[in-house]
Design goal:
The structure is a single chain. This protein is of the alpha/beta class and 306 residues long. Helix 1 crosses helix 7 and helix 6 crosses helix 8. The protein folds into 2 domains: 188 residues, 3-Layer(aba) Sandwich (Rossmann fold), CATH 3.40.50.720; 80 residues, no CATH class. The protein has 12 helices and 16 strands. Helix 1 links the parallel strand 1 and strand 2. 39% of the residues are buried. The structure holds NADP nicotinamide-adenine-dinucleotide phosphate (NAP).
């Protein structure tokens, strides 16, 4: 029975992946991380601090399952995973753990923030690109299959875990009487944590059975099934947050919002650029449903933040 070792299980997508994989009788599961996922006490857990130089060959050995193919799936930051994996593979040959491949989440920021003018985002892109290159080099050196997923905006809830971007807007959309919405805005392709989980699981299963997905790029930017403007995204969330209809969205010319945000440039160039990015099209990524060969699901999927 193929084995999956899941890193970053204490994230919405990691938790969703674990839940979907538990439902799959054909997989043996284990979780590695700094905290055991509290909702899944029956899944074997290995303590592993990815950023500790001494971590943790024990996470990989499971004599009872010896010989079964193992795939590592990670929803932890790739800049922690990649150096850890390089150390692990240097300490313990891949064949001795049955390791066949790695599916790791990076971020579409590696593409969308590539030409950012603020230092914070440029440093992020550097960190992501270096980690991706290291992961690729380690896997190829040790003869492992690898797949990097570069998801765009992840939203939604799984178990006790909720995203930290769109869910932050929900209370505002519930409480404020008026919410300004820039118009026009750029496009977004938000992906629900359960969709990202399904994509990662699909790819991991393919690596575990030796099938792989020869026609897919190894570095795969991935998004949700719906591409919509930032404005439309807020409107759909507002309809859900506010079934009684208390909040009114007020369209405000985007240029006026950019002009009003200009002082931010002095305090936080990163935040100023985030405001400008509302006008950028952060979309055009492979849609989850294409990869999973399912009918498309419109934004937003449930569950969302409570
Ligand atoms: N959020 C987004 O919109 C977004 C967009 C694009 C890409 N991504 C990528 O998608 C994945 C999930 O994103 P996220 O925002 O939900 O989670 P995140 O904050 O990037 O990662 C948190 C997860 O990583 C684990 N982790 C962090 N440092 C660790 C360490 N030193 N050792 C072991 N585990 C460690 C955490 O475990 P603990 O329980 O131990 O803290 C937790 O499970 C990440 O790879 C992220 O880079 C996210």
């Amino acid at each position: 029975m193929p084995r999956l070792l899941i890193f970053g299980a204490t994230t919405p997508a990691g938790d969703a992946c674990l839940r979907q994989a538990i439902g799959d009788q054909g997989l043996a599961l284990a979780v590695a991380g700094r905290r055991q996922p509290p909702d899944h006490p029956a899944v074997p857990f290995f303590f592993c601090d990815l950023s500790a130089p001494s971590a943790a060959a024990a996470a990989w050995s499971d004599p009872s399952q010896e010989g079964e193919p193992l795939v590592a799936v990670s929803f932890a930051p790739i800049w922690h995973l990649a150096p850890y994996l390089a150390r692990q593979l240097a300490a313990q040959p891949a064949w001795s753990m049955g390791l066949q491949g790695v599916v790791a989440c990076s971020s579409s920021s590696v593409l969308t923030k590539r030409y950012a003018s603020n230092g914070f985002d440029r440093a992020l892109v550097r960190r992501l690109s270096q980690a991706e290159a290291l992961l690729q080099a380690s896997c190829e050196h040790h003869g492992l299959a690898w797949q990097i997923l570069a998801p765009t905006l992840i939203y939604g809830r799984s178990g006790t875990y909720t995203d930290r971007n769109l869910s932050r807007l929900m209370p505002l959309l519930r409480r404020l009487p008026l919410v300004p919405v820039p118009k026009p805005t750029g496009l977004r392709q938000p992906i629900h944590c359960s969709q990202l989980a399904a994509v990662a699981l699909h790819l991991a299963r393919a690596l575990a059975t030796g099938g792989g997905s020869a026609d897919l790029p190894r570095h795969l930017p991935v998004g949700g099934d719906d591409t919509l403007s930032y404005q439309e995204m807020l409107e759909r969330l507002q309809r859900l947050a506010n079934r009684g209809g208390r909040t009114t969205l007020i369209p405000v010319p985007a240029r006026l919002i950019y002009a009003l945000a200009a002082p931010l440039l002095l305090v936080s160039p990163k935040r100023f650029e985030a405001v400008l990015r509302m006008g950028a099209d952060l979309s055009g990524f492979m849609a989850a449903h294409q990869l999973l060969q399912r009918p498309p699901e419109p934004f937003p999927l449930h569950p969302l933040a409570p």
